From TrEMBL:
PROSITE patterns: N6_MTASE. Keywords: DNA replication, DNA-binding, Methyltransferase, S-adenosyl-L-methionine, Transferase. It catalyses: a 2'-deoxyadenosine in DNA + S-adenosyl-L-methionine = an N(6)-methyl-2'-deoxyadenosine in DNA + S-adenosyl-L-homocysteine + H(+). PANTHER family: DNA ADENINE METHYLASE. One of its GO terms (biological process) is DNA restriction-modification system. One of its GO terms (molecular function) is sequence-specific DNA binding. This is Site-specific DNA-methyltransferase (adenine-specific). Belongs to the N(4)/N(6)-methyltransferase family. Its EC number is 2.1.1.72. S-adenosyl-L-methionine binds at W11, K15, D59, D186. SUPFAM superfamilies: S-adenosyl-L-methionine-dependent methyltransferases. It is an enzyme of class 2 (transferase).
Length: 283
């Protein structure tokens, strides 16, 4: 297999470690699909490590999508400007919090994109979190020397020429799915416990009604439009119930949200594949 490509953003719940598994399932489900649709693209590991002619990549986080579009349209300029912030002088709490204020007060898309990348690499654990007012509030990360992902950004920018980036609700993305496509959904995961809920990735969150609605949309796409849909999520009684119309496979995954590597436990995840049954051949 070709060498795996890492996303240029740090991302809680990123799918880098699972891309072979996900890619194999997508290819098996739709051998002739030419478009991959991702309603929850995140850092884009699946996009970067699959081989489709075209991609429709969506996320509800406008800062993320703006960053991708800026990088896609002017990679040299963007990478050059972003690199200027990755100096020792800016790897201090005071500088970080000043830039965070600047980001939260800015309405300039380009400036916000540059600062979003800076905060992603200098903020705590690569988290992306906003409060209910839409204010980015991730604290300083205290890294010795934050990595500037120049090589990864150039790779992303080149491959992004095959992609259309959108910032829509997941339900609207399903309305845009072309024929001859396959869909991969990596929604915010159902919490494993009441205290583990992490819903402030984007203003508004993603609740249990959204989880069930996504499962319904997947059923419609697969069984009515004949578009295969793969969804990943935590393996819980609730997810097994809402994905009852899918073929379910359980896989073990290391948790990556914990800052202490030694305390990263393995948890079970579900891969729910929605696939229309093949029509019987007429004799």
């Amino acid at each position: 297999m070709q060498k795996k490509t890492r996303a240029f953003l740090k991302w809680a719940g990123g799918k880098y470690s699972l891309v072979e598994d996900i890619s194999a399932r997508l290819n098996l489900a739709s051998k002739h699909a030419d478009t991959l649709v991702e309603p929850f693209v995140g850092a884009g590991s699946v996009f970067l490590n699959t081989d489709f002619k075209h991609y429709i990549l969506n996320d509800i986080n406008a800062d993320l999508i703006n960053l991708y579009n800026e990088l896609k349209s002017s990679p040299d300029e963007f990478i050059s400007d972003a690199k200027k912030l990755f100096v020792d002088l800016n790897n201090h709490a005071d500088a970080y919090y000043d830039y965070r204020v600047q980001f939260n007060q800015s309405n300039d898309i380009y400036e916000r994109a540059i600062l979003f990348l800076y905060m992603n690499r200098h903020g705590y654990n690569g988290l992306c979190r906003y409060n209910l007012k839409g204010i980015f509030n991730v604290p300083f990360g205290k890294y010795k020397r934050p990595y500037f992902p120049e090589k990864e950004m150039y790779f992303f920018a080149e491959k992004a020429q095959q992609a259309t980036f959108t910032c829509l609700g997941y339900d609207d993305v399903f309305k845009l799915v072309p024929s001859n496509a396959v869909i991969y959904c990596d929604p915010p995961y159902v919490p494993l416990s009441k205290t583990a809920s992490f819903t402030s990735y984007a203003k508004g969150g993603f609740n249990l009604d959204d989880q069930a609605n996504l499962a319904n949309l997947a059923e419609q796409a697969a069984f009515e439009q004949k578009t295969p849909v793969l969804i990943s999520n935590h393996d819980t009684v609730w997810t097994r119930k809402i994905y009852s119309q899918a073929t379910l496979n359980e896989i073990q995954v290391k948790r990556t949200i914990s800052p202490k590597g030694g305390s990263r436990n393995k948890v079970n995840e579900l891969m729910a594949m929605y696939l229309a049954p093949k029509s019987p051949r007429h004799k």
